[in-house]
Structures
1.
Amino acid sequence: MNTKQALRKKMRQRLNSQGQSERRKKSRAIQRSLFGNKEFQASKCVMLYVSKGTGEVETGPIIKKALKMGKKVALPVTMVGEKRIKPVCVKDLKKGLKKGPYGIYEPKGSKSRKGVRIKDIDLVIVPGLAFDKHNNRLGHGRGYYDSFLKRLREDIPKVGLGFRFQLLKKIPTTGSDFSLTRVITN
């Protein structure tokens, strides 16, 4: 097993072993930090992800607050055949989510919907299993986010959310990995 695979396995175990109340408490503190972030406050179109069932920082309250603030919210839809993610606008989480490929939740009926134009996105909140002090990110290993992030303008903030134990001194990277603007932890 290579170093990245071993680290992914270890981080998934840590995420899954964290109690729900502890995850919720830490998530609220991370959410507050994000809400106070000037890039979040100034954004008009934010791309988020659905954390449901992943053990990662809870993003439901972030999505709801962004919508309540009048922001356009895009969620990723996995296009397996094209090996890419497509940002799709969501207006209400109550309309329902469904498990997409790899068990990641996405809006129902999103495959046929027109995507949000990448040039309209002005903030991206990125999932990850681990991050390091140089804003590198260890994802789930399929490369969808790295490919997506490379398509964005360089000046678009890319923010990772993670628990303190997910922030490591250094994670293994390759030339195809993409660093973030910042990582918010607690």
2.
Amino acid sequence: MIGSLIEKEITTPAQYPLSLNSLTAACNQKSSREPVMQLSEKAVQDVVDDLVKRHLVSNRGGFGSRVTKYQHRFANVGFGSLEFSAQEMGILCLLLLRGPQTAGELRSHSGRLCQFTDVNETENVLRGLAERSDGPFVVQLAREPGRREVRYAHLFGDQDVETAVPVATQAPTASGDAEGQSRSSDRITQLEDLVLNLQEELEAIKARLEALESGSRD
């Protein structure tokens, strides 16, 4: 819920804050979500009401307003203790919306929220979020069998971090192993980026074709 509000604040500021209908549509969005949900407006309203009570969301409804709108009070709102850079906010938003991801996946998915020059910069921001004095806000998960890359998860809400390991323990012990793993990691990240970019381009082409087909039928 908060991830959807953060996303829309950044990507569609003209439509932000969000009405209940718009927030429900954002939560049920089929792209950029893992898992994809099918929430009713009542379910969304119940969660929003709870977040309002916890001062994490504010109600913009008032006298003369026909539609109640909602905005997050999660961070960067001019009051409260949490302040994040654009890159930090982008990473946290992605982790809230898509769940645990690798640094390469976060960089590939971040285009509409913030910009990273390379995976190393993404990893540095993740490390900063894990080591902040007022945090930690993210955690590195233990490497899963069959996976070469480690994933990261946010630490907001009820998170199971039993398999988490400190972010700073990524470096191999031997320099030769470190160089080999670094090169391998770079190649895998490049392939991941390529696949994700191709998927996004394919989705865009499909959307254009569907629009053209719809226009021809009309």
3.
Amino acid sequence: MIDYQLKGKVAMITGAASGIGFAIAEKMAASGAALSLWDVSEDHLTSAIEKLKHYDVPMLAIVADVSDADAVAAGVERTVAELGRLDIGVNNAGIGGPAAKSAEYPIDGWNKVININLNGVFYCQRAQLQTMVKQGSGSIVNMASILGQVGIAMSPAYVAAKHGVVGMTKSAALEHAADGIRLNSVGPGFIHTPLVDETLDKETQDYLATQHALNRMGTPAEVAELVCWLASDAASFVTGTYYAVDGGYLAK
């Protein structure tokens, strides 16, 4: 496992209890980072922390809904109070939402996807930036998607939210470069996560695999490698950019 030399740094990761978020947490823990781990499920978060204990790094559990701006602000404040600072923000929490054509897409489904996948990322980014500006340093990685660059049928809310994440990351990177803060977004292709396995049958997953040049779906660990590099000082000249980790999906 690559050591991203994160000892002495504090990382906040949302959606950290499973899938991509957990893989990021594990790689950052292995590189020595103290972790503020966020999820909506206390049980899943407790289980995740138990799995990470052997890395012997400070860990804080934050049970919060990222679509609640007040809860996010309080969680970031608690992170700084208990872990001392905030060097890395990984805004990964998200949902898939309903599958429906735009003309028939349920309004409540639209609002829920936008509130978590777009507003939630903004709320976290906003609170992280306020802390990092005071420090004069920091790195934020926002989880977008290949669907932050292209469309797909039956998921208008998800596509809209992920396009929004890419755009607001670029804007914030321009605004806060002078503050010593870097911001980038990451666009995974279709990845084997609990969310995908719960929502897509095997036939659909097999088809999606063929849409990638590498003819397979990715793993959470492969996404985590890119995120950890962007978060680390090794990427010190990288900001305002969207990075795909997509097995060649966008090359078509």
